[in-house]
Amino acid sequence: MSTAPLLRIKGAAKFFGAKLIFRDVNCEVAAGEVLLVAGPNGAGKTTLLKAMAGLAPLTAGRVECGAPAERVAYLGHATFIYPALTALQNLGFWARMYGMSAERERLMAMLDRVGLARVAEERAGSFSRGMSQRLNLARVFLVEPALLFLDEPGTGLDAASLALLRREIAGLREAGTAVVWISHHVHEDRLLADTILALGGNTVRWYGPARDYEPEAVC
Fold first, then answer.
1. Domains plus CATH for the chain?
2. What is the mean pLDDT of residues 55-83?
């Protein structure tokens, strides 16, 4: 596993008008490392994640990313699924948008990876939340990300889909992908993380090894 930072955040601060969201955020993520972002609702987790991914500007500080843009993936709350298209058609559309091969064999392999091969020809509008999120994961896997941002991907998932998500995150880590992951299941998910960054009170309340994190001590 490489220890060179693939992503580095220095002195990050964000205001919305006069309202301070967070300040003095410093962290880094190496290839093959999972950074879990924790904190209460309203602490600025999603805002920070978007800034890390280059999707929103910071008020101060900077983001240094060493991953090629085409291998950076972001999975947010929206699934970007076209309900009138089948799972296979959705994945084919995304592949073409990325300028990648949309061969059926390749797309079916992705759907099989997330347990959706049997419903490949069904319209995505009939999918449950768990199935939709699995299809969204397949979209992310198309780019073989070097750096992956996950914003509460487990929200609303059934037990089987949540287990699949956690297996995939563990697999991505082993394959050398850097993962920045917001989770509301911190007690369970920290077992898959290397480092935890906890926001609260408009700043960083904890930044260190996941094994040493004690939520009660930083609330």
1. 5-82+143-218 (3.40.50.300)
2. 93
